[in-house]
Structure formats: C-alpha cells, structure tokens
Automatic annotation (TrEMBL):
Keywords: 4Fe-4S, Iron, Iron-sulfur, Metal-binding, Oxidoreductase. The chain holds residues 237 to 976 of 992 of the full protein. Residues 8-63 form the 4Fe-4S Mo/W bis-MGD-type domain. The gene is fdhF_1. It comes from Variovorax defluvii. It comes from the Bacteria. Its cofactor is [2Fe-2S] cluster. This is Formate dehydrogenase subunit alpha. Coiled coil: none annotated. The lineage of its organism: Bacteria, Pseudomonadati, Pseudomonadota, Betaproteobacteria, Burkholderiales.
Amino acid sequence: RIGSQQVDRQVDSVCPFCGVGCLITYNVKDEKIVSVDGRDGPANHGRLCVKGRFGFDYAHHPQRLTVPLIRKPGVPKDFGDAPRPGDWGGAFREATWEEALALAAGKLKDLRDTHGSKALAGFGSAKGSNEEAYLFQKLVRTGFGSNNVDHCTRLCHASSVAALLEGVGSGAVSNQVNDVEHADLIFVIGSNPTANHPVAATWMKNAAKRGAKIVLADPRVTDIGKHAWRTLQFKADTDVAMLNALIHTVIEEGLVDEAFVRERASNFEALRENVKGYSPEAMAPICGIPAETLREVARAFATAKGAMVLWGMGVSQHVHGTDNARCLIALVTVTGQIGKPGSGLHPLRGQNNVQGASDAGLIPMMFPNYQRVDDAAAHAWFENFWGVPLDATPGYTVVEIMHKALAPDSDPHKIRGMYIMGENPAMSDPDLNHARHALASLEHLVVQDIFMTETAWLADVVLPASAWPEKTGTVSNTDRMVQLGLRALNPPGEAKPDLWIIQQIARRMGPHAPHFVSSLPPEGAVRALGRPGGAEGLDWNYQGDESGVAAVYEEMRQAMHAAISGISWERLQRESSVTYPCLSEDDPGQPIVFVDDFPTADGRVKLVPADIIPADERPDAQYPFVLITGRQLEHWHTGSMTRRATVLDALEPMATASMNQGDLDALGLQAGDVVTLRSRRGEVAIHVRRDDGTPAGAVFVPFAYYEAAANLMTNAALDPFGKIPEFKYCAVQVLRGGTP
Ligand code: SF4
C-alpha cells in the first residue's frame, strides 16, 4: 500500500457504493488511484468496509469504454450468446462523438415526432450524482415530453416510500443510522446490514456492546444475528402476520402510548379493529415464531426509552411490500417510538445515491422533492420554471416500461425508444428473459455507461461515460446528508462526463414543444441565480467545468424548494456534508424529524391497517423451493463495478447458491456441488454453498453474476402501490448437476 506521503495528490470524495455514504479520500499517483482512506464523515467517522477500502480500481479496468460505439447494421440483438465482460463480439463499430450523438439523439427525436411523447422512456441512475439525476429527468420531461422516467429505486424501496409518503408524509428516514447510539432496542427487519450497509452495522454492534437490544427479524439469519438479543426467523412472506401480532400485543396489553396516538395519529380505531384477529397465538403457526417470543419482543419495543426500526429489501421487495412498511409505521406510532432520539423509521437505502436521485425527481410520478406531476400547483410551477409545457400524467415505472416495449403497434403508449444512463436492467430487472426481449425489441436504445454491460450489449448506440472518481458532484445518503465528491481523475480515452452527454442529447433533440414565457414562479422561489429559462437552462449550456455542476446543483436547489434551501454549493465546498431538511445557511440541518408534527395534510401520522396477502407465486409440488435474491458484502448490484475490482473479485469470484445443511443432505449435495435452479421463467447452473442461516426450503442467490443471473428466475409480479417486483420470493426447483 502506498502511503499518503508518497502520492501525487489526495482528493476528497464519497464512497460510490452503498447508501451509508462514507466520506473518503482518493490517493492518486501517476494518474491512478492507489489507495483509499476513510475520512471523518458524519456517517462513517473514518470507518470503511471492504468495498470502500479496496473497490476502487474498477475505474482503471482495461475494459472501460473509451470511444462511442454504434451497432453494426444487421447484427441481431440476441442475448442467446451473452457477452463476457469486455467482449462486444464484433457487434459494434467505433464512432466519433458527433456521429454517435447525431444518431442517438436523432432517432429519439424521430420517434418522438412520429409517434408522440409516450413513445420514449428513460432510466437514470442511483449511481450518478444528484445533478445528473436532476438533468436527466429534466431532459425526459422537457425533451421527451412525458414522465416516463425511473431508476432502480423502483427495484429497492419504492414500496417503503409509498407507505412512508402515505403515512408520515415524507419518504426519507426519520432518524439517522448512528442514532442507534441512543436506542435501547434496535429492530432490524429484512436487512443484512453487515453485508449491505457494513459501516452502518458497526454502529449497531457498538450499540449492542453498550447494552442495547438488537432484534433481528428475517427469514435468513445473517451475521448481525450474532449480536442480537432475540432473533425472529419468521417464515418468508409472513411479515404482515408477525408485525400485526406485535401491534396486537401492544394494544391488548395496554402498552399503547395513548397521548402520542391521541395527539399525533389518525385512524387508530381502524388499526385496532384490524389487528384484533392477529393475536400472537393465532399468528405463531403462520409466521413460525412462538407466541411468547412475539409478546416479549412487543413489550420490549413498547417500553424501551428509544426503539428504532431499520429495514431493507426483505421488507420492500414483495407484492405486499407497502403493507409491510405500513405495519412498521403503525408499530412505531402506537408505541410513540418516533420523533425523538434513538427511535423512528429508517429504510436503509441501497445504492450510494438512491435517496438523492429520488429527491431530484428521477421517478415517474413526482417532480423534484416529491411534488406530484398531477398536482395542478406543482405542475404549473415546473412549467413556469422550465419554460416548457409538461405532461401532467404519471409515467410508467421500470417494469411497466418493459411491458410497454412489447406492446402491440396499435398501443398509443408503446415504448419504442429508450435512453438508459448508468443502469443495467438486462441484469437487474425481474424475469430477465422478458426484460431482455423487451430491450432488444426497442427500435432505438441508447446506453450511456462505463462498461459494456449486459444492457449496453442490446444498444444501438453506446456512449462512454465517466466513473465516479472522474467527476465532481453531490450525492445524498440514507441519512439525508447531501455530500460533495470532487473529481480525482480524468476519464479515459474519449469518455465524457455524464452531465455533458445529457446536454448533448438534449440540445440535439430540442424541447418536445415550443418554449414559452409565462408568469414567473411564485415569489421567493427563485434566488439570485435566476430562472433556468436563461442561457444555461433552456439552451442546455451549463459549463463543462465545476461551475457548470454548481449551476445545475443550484437550479435543483430551487426546484426542491425548502428541503435543501440552506445547502448552497459554497457551503458544501466548506463542509462536505450537510443534513436536510436545512432551511437556511445557518441551519445545521435536522438529523431527527417529526419531532413536533408530520408533513401530512393534518400534521398527523395516518395509520393504515394491513392484512395478509400471499406471495404471487408460492412453492408447490413441482417447484418446491423458495428463491430469495439479494446482495453480498463484496459485490455491488449487477457486479459491473465490483467484479472488476481486483480485491473484491478475488474474494468472491463466482456465483453461489446458499442452502442450509439439512436441505443439502436431503438432496444428497455437498458444498461446492453444482445444481440447476429452475423457475417457471428461467434457470441457472450454480455451485452450492452451505449457509445454515438460510431457512429450510429456501435458496439464496446474489444477483451480481452475469453467468448465473438470478433474475432469470425471479417473478415480475408487482406491489400495487410501489410497483416494486417480488424479488424476495418465487418458486424454484433445485436439481442436481448442470454446467455453470
Ligand atoms: Fe462504501 Fe457503504 Fe462500505 Fe461505507 S459501508 S465504505 S459507503 S460500501
């Protein structure tokens, strides 16, 4: 390892992987990152996990895209022979930027002008900056002319956000992770924090050491279980039964915080009525947790000075994901465990900027800061702000867009062209055979990325973009901290900053309808920078240097109204990290929200009763096992970055399927054997690994490996509110043998 005294320069940034948002310093020598140090950031206090410490050299990987590529005429978009990393199999030819941009934007424009605005859609990225997310959604709304814009939040916490917006009026966390320091009880549900939010997990372990009780509630018993006071290994898919049993106990045993419910909640009677039938004794056979254990946990939660709930995608990725989150909101409300230190609701955000990308409006039903596109006042404000007529109907979500790509020609909303920036739906979407077929069926697909991803493999034009260390920008972590990362390197070859590429597409497409000049936005909403209808905004002429990034940030700050109004670019340059809501330059930010009221219409939490809805596809005699998908410590999402990081790839070089010893024995398998996992939609051959934390009758597969893509098997059934697919539950066969 090269020490800091031997490097050419040190550049401060933010870890590009998970939503914990650890602040880092890149050590650069000879124009390469040679090591990474943890900084004393508010989320990490100098700590880093293996990804943050060693996952940096993907940026220097020889498979980086360095020139624009155009698909050769007549080459089929066939995924039958999936590409190996770095191999584009002669399907593409190199092109100049001018030629590639002219084709990329020209065909999108043709499709829009021929078939109308609904013919196009865009996926932005939670791996990019807030500024990129903001500009991308602005391009789709003003240039494409619809709200068909989404990103991977749809695949992780969309159902949590739906429940939170409905219940407490805000989709973000109420308390920051390291507030577990003040909690007596830490309720971790549907989350494997030591793998997925490792530095956050260290705060939980520290809390356990000083005496806090961790309750792990999860069908899989993961590492944090070693530190747990109680482990509730409930049967997969029975979240609502278990959580309603806890709420039932709180009410039945007189543990309700009556004053809190009376003064700050609505619809309590409906909740009380609904959970009457969910006694622990009735639910124990359903969820698999003894009634007395459920009662014990409910009592401990209700009587703790502070009890905090942290959850992951085990809660959200179900057809009843919104109901699961509604139950968590109800649990903290009836016990008064919200709006004070060491309590509250914390959906642990997955990717580094999934919070910020959502805040910036990279979602089909909301403008920046969760202002609904079908709200007349918000709609008028943004039409004025951007100076272009806007669609007032919510757009399609990720999975809906895939369906619309395969709609008949007669469908006026058929998606015919897409622009995908930094996302990899050909690996991350459910039911991949369907998703890949949909992407391949598009008349025009433009992909902007740093590697030839599985999605880029299906593109007509591939635009080489910048890796995170190659750009300056802000990201927002799971704790609502807006954090600034600075450019440490130049992009390789002819690769370009994403902000530049978005603008080039926007300029060539032009607005979907003529610009207009109407009344100015509401008084006070526009600050010194002025309306983006000036030379920078409507002409898509932001500067290519840091001042251009700052200009986009400041425009976004106006669009987000009060939420980040106290976080100026200059303040971020001084402080690196500021928590929102932050209303003025001297506001330190609010690490705990809902202290006095909730941002709902009546200022109260709305309690929403939930009943048991079974998974869309249950195991049966033909497909007897449950497939659970997820992540692992060393690899990140579809693996495009971490599998090209030397240390991380060496630690976990190949896909494995985890099963417990009992199931391995029953099938006559040993760890290391190859099995074929098969669902009704697809199959993979994969080595098995023993993991006794995986429940009987289930198999866990990470989705980072192209050669054993777990999502070939997953079910695209959606939660009706969050429109999130059921990644955490589908039925599979486990068959001995196969060729991995
Ligand atoms: Fe990066 Fe998350 Fe690890 Fe921190 S915990 S170093 S943000 S991957």
